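User: I'm putting together a teaching handout on how multi-component assemblies are represented. Below are the sequence lines for each component of a complex, exactly as they appear in our records. Could you produce the 3D structure of the whole assembly as structure tokens, so the students can see both representations side by side? Please keep the chain order the same as the input.
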Amino acid sequence: MSRYEPLMRFENVEVRYGNTVALEDISFTVEKPSFTAIVGPNGAGKTTLLKTALGLIKPSRGSVIVLGIDVLKDPWRVRRLVGYVPQRERIDHAMPALVRDIVLMGRALRLKVGASLSEKDHEIARSALSKVGLLDMWDEPFSHLSGGQQQRVMIARALAAEPKLLLLDEPLSGVDAESQVIIVRLLREMADNGIGVFVVVHDLNPFIRHLDYILLLNKRVIGFGKPVEVTKPEMLSLTFNREVKVLETADTYFILGTDTHA
Ligand SMILES: Nc1ncnc2c1ncn2[C@@H]1O[C@H](COP(=O)(O)OP(=O)(O)OP(=O)(O)O)[C@@H](O)[C@H]1O
Ligand SMILES: [Mg+2]
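Assistant: Of course. Below is the structure of the complete assembly, with chains in the same order as your input.
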């Protein structure tokens, strides 16, 4: 097994908040860089799973390996290699900063104590902003951007740190259609370039044709596998605690009934 593998392995992981069990006996493995969606209803434990992968929450049971590293033993090493884009409600949209300051933060987090940003750091930050199609916004105030553009800047900040793995929590929520297409395409491209990508989503539809794996989550693992293997009405209905239909067309399919509460 090469360096940084497995990309992510959960083994019999249980996470509790006091007496509440948020995750129950979670096991799955993604060996190599690829594009995975974690899907489930509100309160399913999706954000909890990402935070557990980052070592921000300690499981009460089980083991978590990320990029070949035991997260419980070495959370700092994992966090240096992982880009995390939190759920949007947690981002301050009125941040009094320029777009470039936010993207450069991705570089600043990688600096040694006492070092300052170099020309190379600026170059990498500009290249990250260009990947999300917003290089011309470099000098703009962040608060002047649309919700979708702000989300793209947050992704650029994560990319600027040159992560081996990207974790994104609901990256398309409140995001306009144009930004959605750009984000999905970019994430697929990252995975093709050897960076692991995990997205947490309510609505699979914008992603479905681009994913390698899907984890259906509702406190426990309802299903894990390739999209065709797990996008079955029975499994989706069990995941969302309601009737979910799958509509097949000639070249793709749509999942109906999962996103009304998003
Ligand atoms: N800090 C906390 N303290 C106590 N309970 C928590 C805490 N964070 C989450 N929970 C509970 O754990 C469960 C899982 O929460 P989590 O935020 O992981 O779900 P989620 O799938 O991300 O939901 P959403 O789709 O609403 O973002 C919920 O029942 C939630 O109320
Ligand atoms: Mg969440």
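A couple of points students might notice: The helical segments are 46-53, 75-81, 99-108, 119-131, 147-160, 177-192, 227-230, 233-240. The CA atoms of residues 43 and 155 lie 24 Å apart.
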